[in-house]
Design goal:
Elements lengths: L21 H12 L3 H9 L5 H20 L9 H12 L1 H12 L13 H7 L1 H15 L8 H4 L1
Helix pairs in contact: 1-3, 1-5, 2-4, 3-4
Amino acid sequence: MNESRLPAQHPLGMLNYEQMNPSVQAAVQRCQDFDLSRVQRRLAEHGLLPESWIDECVLEFRRYLILNLVQPKKQPMFSPYVDEVWHQTILFTQMYHELGQAIAGRYFHHEPLDGDDPSEALEADTAAFDEFRATYEALFGPLPEVWTRHILD
């Protein structure tokens, strides 16, 4: 599996990468390079996501981690599909710990929403989603459908 939507010139397709400080640039590169093939395999083998979505959802998980690294305010998870990648990554506890250390020098905590479905967060708090969208788009460009697909279905 490959995350083929990435522009070759910037890790994770990050906009304004050259203007980021060197420590953020290094973290973005380490995030892109971190091997998540075991997670991708698990997602496919267990049918947790449609195979055609796995690469995109893994890319968006990587971007979500970077978004939370560069923003002082923790960003909520609005996609059940990206959240599934996060859940499956956490199951590989040592790898997940290493991922956080490689990117940020810390553990990325996962706090579940009060409801069972991340789409409830979107419906309950459109202002938070609008802030998430603006932050995402400033870093990576237009918000992909994977963040809103569950609402459109």
